[in-house]
Amino acid sequence: MAAAKNAFYAQSGGVTAVINASACGVIETARAHTEQIGKVYAGRNGIIGALTEELIDTSQESAEAIALLRSTPAGAFGSCRYKLKSLDANRQEYERLIAVFKAHDIGYFFYNGGGDSADTCFKVSQLAQSMGYPIQAIHVPKTVDNDLPITDCCPGFGSVAKYVAVSALEASFDVRSMARTSTKVFVLEVMGRHAGWIAAAGGLIEDQGIPVVVLFPEVPFDEQKFIARVDALVKQHGYCTVVVSEGCHHPDGTFLAEQGSKDAFGHAQLGGAAPVVAGIVKRALGYKFHWAVADYLQRAARHIASRTDVQQAYEVGAAAVRLALAGHNAVMPTIERVSDAPYQYRIGMAPLSEVANVEKFMPRDFITDDGFGITEACKRYLRPLIQGEDPPQFRDGLPVYATLKNLAVPPKLPAFALR
User: Fold this and answer.
1) Cβ neighbours of residue 300 under 8 Å, at least 6 residues apart?
2) For residue 261, what pLDDT band results from cuts at 50, 70 and 90?
3) Which helix (H) or strand (E) holds 38?
4) Which residue is catalytic, options 57, 145, 152, 309?
5) How many other β-carbons are positioned within 10 Å of the β-carbon of residue 357?
6) Which residues pair with 55 in a beta bridge?
7) Fewer CB atoms near the end CB (10 Å): N or C, the chain?
8) Which pLDDT tens digit goes with each residue over 46-72?
9) DSSP letters spanning 199-244
10) Which residues, in sequence order, are bridge partners of residue 292?
11) Helix/strand/coil (H, E, C) string of 56-116?
12) What span, in angstroms and rounded, lies between the C-alpha atoms of 164 and 192?
């Protein structure tokens, strides 16, 4: 019987309230198969940890500490925004990965992230074919944006959707209290560069009697129609709430919130759609307003995570290990919806060749004809994903979260400078 190979696990991109639950699923499942998997090394700060040979030995963590990851937000091992170039463009990086994998006897690669991370994982999976090093690379899905294809939903989304819906509801109650003599419009900006899934969650508060306008990236911003809609709602109800995606854009494609800079993946750096929208309301209608940007709060809010989301995040982590042990390579575990009510799903599998660099947008039939709300079909899709609560333990009024030792193994290779 062949000796057990070690595994490399890393977190990539923007972290979520439940990405550590996936880490927990990977590590606990690997520990249950020590005859096939030796140690699980975690990359310090994602794929960068592999390139710089900063490998955290998770075997130094107790079972209790790993279990606590399930209820801990953010990335326990550090994340990164670093995209591998093609083999032709930077062969040196791939040669370095192979050198590190060989030095530490790594035969399994689990990369936990979104679309760009799926691309990185797919490139690593090709090492056996292109450079003669056998490794099984499995992508563990994660993204609050909910824009990975094939899978019904993405771990991380259900919790951010729950946070946005609850926060929009609570803030709307506040505005309603003040509307007679003060604030008439509240604007909440949420994440979502090209896909409006998170903003759509704000539309759920309509069922609680809240007048709400949702601005999606999928629908070009029509300023005059927007002003008319807000004015009508305020005149009818005395107030209204606006939930705007950071990716909301003008008909010519420019973002309302574009700052002119780029992130590490070459995406436009966004931030500031809420004050732009609030300013439009003030200039056109004169209503007093307040605005807020959910920013990190929406993806870090483990205290109000969706129980469904936590469960799915753990399950895809565990499934990734099982897929690798079954001999699969270049695949991603998926969530397949079986029914809406009662909500049922199963774990499936998709090839990374069909996942990498593909974005899933809101279907047009999920958005109302006027472009400012969500349909009943969208509500049927969203409701199960925010169901259930899974609060962390609290001590002295604050949640108890894991802080791992994160002890690194001694490097065996010369230092490597990132480009």
Assistant:
1) 15, 17, 73, 74
2) very low
3) strand 37-43
4) 145
5) 10
6) 43
7) N
8) 999 999 999 999 999 999 999 999 999
9) HHHHGGGGGGT--EEEE-TTS---HHHHHHHHHHHHHHHS-EEEEE
10) 188
11) EEHHHCCHHHHHHHHHCCCCCCCCCCCCCCCCCCCHHHHHHHHHHHHHCCEEEEEEEECHH
12) 12
CA dist 125 and 134 (Å) reads 9
Residue 166, judged by CB atoms within 10 A of its CB (0-12, 13-18, 19+), counts as middle
Looking only at the bridges linking them, the beta strands covering 331-339 and 344-351 are: antiparallel
Q: Is 145 a catalytic residue?
A: yes
- Find, among 213, 175, 186, 169, the residue nearest to 290 by Cα: 186
List the chain domain ranges: 5-143+303-358+387-399, 157-301
Top CATH class of 157-301 equals alpha beta
Out of 3.40.50.2300, 3.40.50.450, 3.40.50.300, 2.60.120.1440, the CATH code matching 5-143+303-358+387-399 is 3.40.50.450
- pTM for the full model? 0.94
CA–CA dist 288, 49 (Å, integer): 49
Task: Tell me whether domains 5-143+303-358+387-399 and 157-301 share a fold.
Answer: yes
Q: How confident is the model at residue 141 (pLDDT cuts 50, 70, 90)?
A: very high
Q: How far is CA 31 from CA 1, 39, 61, 67, 325, in A?
A: 19, 8, 12, 12, 13
Q: Max Cα separation, the chain?
A: 77
The band of 113, judged by pLDDT with boundaries at 50, 70 and 90, is very high
Quote the CA–CA distance of 97 and 124 in Å, as a whole number. Answer: 9
Instruction: Find all residues with CB under 8 Å of 111, minimum gap 6, and list them.
Output: 9, 10, 12, 47, 117, 118, 120, 121, 124, 137, 138, 139, 140
Sequence-ordered list of residues with C-beta below 8 angstroms from that of 328, at least 6 positions apart, any chain: 136, 138, 349
Q: If you search the block for the tokens 């710089």, which residue do you land on? A: 52
Within 239-347, residue ranges assigned H as helices are 273-285, 295-300, 307-325
Asked if residues 408 and 52 have their Cβ atoms less than 8 Å apart, the reply is no
Q: Looking at residue 83, what is its pLDDT?
A: 83
Mean pLDDT of all residues in the chain?
94
Instruction: Give the C-alpha distances (Å, rounded to integers) separating 155 from 18, 159, 205.
Output: 7, 8, 22
Tokens for 5, please give them: 């190979």
